Amino acid sequence: MNLLEKEVENAVEALRKGKVILYPTDTIWGIGCDATNSKAITKLFKIKQRKENKSLIALINSTEMLHNYVKVVPPVAFDLIRSASNPLTIVYPGAKNLARNAIAADSSVAIRVSSNPFCIALVEAFGKPVASSSANVTGEPTAISFGQISDKIKQSVDYTVGLYQDEINHPKASTIIKLEVNGEFTIIRP
């Protein structure tokens, strides 16, 4: 078993137990948990010191997974994902099969199909989306590298992935687009 496989195994074990992990994503380092486990999501919000009415991003590993967590996936979503040159998070209306506190008040959910090898392997092995947020306390600057993550965050999570800690993948958060059922969309964060 190589290091990637071992880290995926350890992270999946933590996620299955409702724990919160600190891990590399296709953008910045994130803290994540099982997107279908409301207690784990509450714990993630507590670590971030964030109100639960703020939404999270659910990471998945393929566009096929979208149908399991969104009631109606507008066809334009696939074009947007395919043509995106940077990591793209799409806010979809009509979330389903996720923890209630992972879904926004308007029943929408933000989902990103990850391109990061660790995240792809993690979601594939876990079999469910990973609720994710930046690895910082709300209101504090976003850490773009592992070394910039506060000790408070590092000490609050249950498991820290031991990969890519000396690398910077994509030093900014993803682009966020809000998509309507009719296919119209608005850019929320460029």
CATH top level assignment: Alpha Beta
Q: Can you tell me the overall shape?
A: globular
What do the pLDDT scores average to? 92
For the biggest sheet, the summary is:
9 strands, mixed
List the total number of helices: 6
Number of self-contained structural domains: 1
> Helix share of residues?
25-40%
What's the number of extended β-strand segments? 9
Structure commentary:
- The chain is built from six helices and nine strands.
- With 190 residues, it is of the alpha/beta class.
- It starts with a helix and ends with a strand.
- 42% of the residues are buried.
Task: Offer a quick outline of the entry.
Helices cover 28% and strands 21% of the residues. It has six helices and nine strands.
Secondary structure blueprint with pairings:
Blueprint: H1 3-16, E1 21-23, E2 30-34, H2 38-48, E3 57-60, H3 66-69, H4 76-83, E4 88-92, E5 109-113, H5 117-126, E6 130-134, H6 151-156, E7 159-160, E8 175-179, E9 185-189
List keywords for this structure.
190 residues, 9 strands, DHBP synthase, 28% helix, single chain, alpha/beta
